[in-house]
Amino acid sequence: MKLLRGKSLLDDPAQNKSTAFSREERNQFGLRGLLPYKVTDIKTQQERALGNLRRKNSDIEKYIFLNSLLERNQRLFYRTMIDHLDEIMPLVYTPTVGEACKQFAHIYRKPQGFYITPEDRGEISSILDNWYETDVRIIVITDGERVLGLGDLGANGMGISIGKSALYVACGGIHPTQCLPVMLDVGTNNQTLREDLLYLGCPHPRLTEHAYLSLIDEFVQAIQTKFPNALIQFEDFQSQNAFDLLDRYRKQVRCFNDDIQGTAAVTLAGIYTSCQITRKRFTDLKIMLLGTGSAATGIAELMIPAFCAAGLSEEFARSRISFVDRQGLVVSSREHFKPRIRSFAHDHASVNFLEAIECIQPDVLIGATGVAGAFNEATIRKMAQFNERPVIIALSNPTSHTECTAEEAYRWTDGRAIFASGSPFPAFRLGEKLFKPAQGNNAYIFPGVGLGVIASRARLITDSMFLIAARVLANMVLPEEIEVGAIYPSLSRIRSVSHGIAVAICQVAQQEGLADDALPEDLTTYVRALMYEPNY
């Protein structure tokens, strides 16, 4: 890294320490007169930053402030985020990132990440040379068509790639210079955006079919040349495209789809943990999924090898999983299916959602619909009728789209529910019992997977890696966390979770013949040494 001087040094977020530059450094780098007298350490700077943050009146203002801090002083931003993850992660990512994406063009300050448009066709490899870092290891790419539960936000979806990259650094210890947020701006079918004078994306209908796939093919191939050690994470693609792209590339390059595989792994981990509370055997569980999109389908598809690893046949494993959509229970007598859920259709009469719970009596109910209130009181009470400790997992983001709130789940089950959600909910007291609901956030999974792939130099990313990630995550939940209703560890320990997952990923990569042969024997120390610590 080139050492800068004077104002150029203060303007560079990666090297700037602001008032933490020592007297000697101020002399050495031409900073005398450019900074106030007092030299402060990073802890004091954190206190100032947190004070300014907490004076903001809305979450979107806090998001803007944190983004500007990142643009000024990268190490201070990440140190503050790591040390105050419970407070800052919901502002940097879900639920606030949903509002930030909706307003992205209106709150835009400074470019972050890389944009690819149809006009770049044939030149993607050459324009990647414009990116100012050369050792890229993590690429988060979205086309903005299905941002959280908010739908098509076009180029505003860049907020997702930026947010996920920040979580790789804070939660997984990936160095900021190794992360590349990418916006594949192929247009938008959101007419309101196209008519917005401030919208920054291509104001045209979306590319489809061959024109769409060939552009992504060019990008993926260019990455193999420009950044051959990079992992590609597909993020917030429309459901069919998400599966098509994953199937297209997963056996060729190191890639995964977080909405499919990350969501599946974090949900599986929660189910594993719930068995410690319900005292039910994992292989005895019946799982019901409301929704048939990429998240729900990904969960079902990972549950199959999880059940099989526990001793079930694949046929019997499939019989333990049921889907419900707008038409009710997905049954084999239907004429039309989404191809990936056909094998999960039950030989059963057509029934509505509530009737399906009555008939099947699932142990675990999972929502991945993007529809607020999809788990109503009748639904939750019906689950509680058949389960002493019903497991309710409401995954949809942001908070305004969740299937039910933590308070509703606890109230409607008289405090018996084991609840988790995709967005955070505050602690809730019911009578004498205090509940601290867990957030089933993919940040428990993808940073550790990314770190493990970087550490092992795994050539591909397999389902076995997500299975072991789920098992590691479940094993890290403490008894005192389970006691207050949490089925995931405290966010304050997420870097330890990522470290544990990364070590396990290295082991799986070795077992599957996908790892670098030169991995050291002491993987625990090796992986920890790779993790970025933002200090001066």
TrEMBL record:
Keywords: Metal-binding, Oxidoreductase. Residues 70-250 form the Malic enzyme N-terminal domain. It comes from the Bacteria. SUPFAM superfamilies: Aminoacid dehydrogenase-like, N-terminal domain, NAD(P)-binding Rossmann-fold domains. (S)-malate binds at residues 146, 397, 441. The active site is at 93 (proton donor), 164 (proton donor). One of its GO terms (molecular function) is NAD binding. Residues 260-510 form the Malic enzyme NAD-binding domain. A divalent metal cation binds at residues 235-236, 259. CDD domains: NAD_bind_1_malic_enz. PROSITE patterns: MALIC_ENZYMES. One of its GO terms (biological process) is malate metabolic process. Divalent metal cations. Prefers magnesium or manganese. Belongs to the malic enzymes family. This is Malate dehydrogenase (Oxaloacetate-decarboxylating)(NADP+). It comes from Nitrosomonas communis.
